Amino acid sequence: MNAVIYHNPRCGTSRNTLALIRHAGLEPEVIDYLADPPDRSRLVELITAAGLGVRDAIRQKGTPYLELGLDAANLGDDALLDAMLAHPILINRPFVQTRMGTRLCRPSEVVLEILPPIATPFTKEDGEVVG
């Protein structure tokens, strides 16, 4: 099975998700989405496939979300997508795609929904055991 992760190596949730994928026996394609952001059609595809709305896929913490006025209720999806493409840090992470589906893996163990079963428990960076 192939897997793709839109990854931020500075994010603990993203690092745990990547480690869980590898723990399941897969070596994913790792895309540093800050350095190589998805284009508009790919971003829309990821959000839609994960069953999310655009606003659900925006990261607020540690981003220019408020400074850009993205909390305004009257902003539509196009404006939000424009902001995400102009400032990739606004794209919540990590998105993971496998043959079994696409998920925004927050928390990291959400990735288990789209991976083969893991045979042994996994310990996250904070010591929490999963599986």
Low-confidence stretches: none
Annotation field: number of helices:
3
Which strand order do you get reading across the main beta sheet?
2-1-3-4
Mean pLDDT: 96
N-C termini distance: 20 Å
Q: Which outline best applies?
A: globular
Sketch the topology as an H/E string, one letter per element. EHEHHEEEE
Rg calculated over all Cα atoms? 15 Å
Structural class: alpha+beta
The major pleated sheet works out as:
4 strands, mixed
Count all strands and give the number.
6
Q: Bin the strand percentage.
A: 15-25%
Quick description:
The chain is α+β, with helices and mostly antiparallel strands and about 130 residues long.
Please tell me about this protein's structure.
With 131 residues, this protein is of the alpha+beta class. The chain has three helices and six strands. It has helices spanning 12-23, 40-49, 77-86, and strands at residues 3-7, 29-32, 95-98, 101-104, 122-123, 129-130. The strands form two sheets. It has a four-stranded mixed β-sheet, sandwiched between helices. Strands 5-6 form a two-stranded antiparallel ribbon. The radius of gyration is 15 Å and the shape is globular. 31% of the residues are buried.
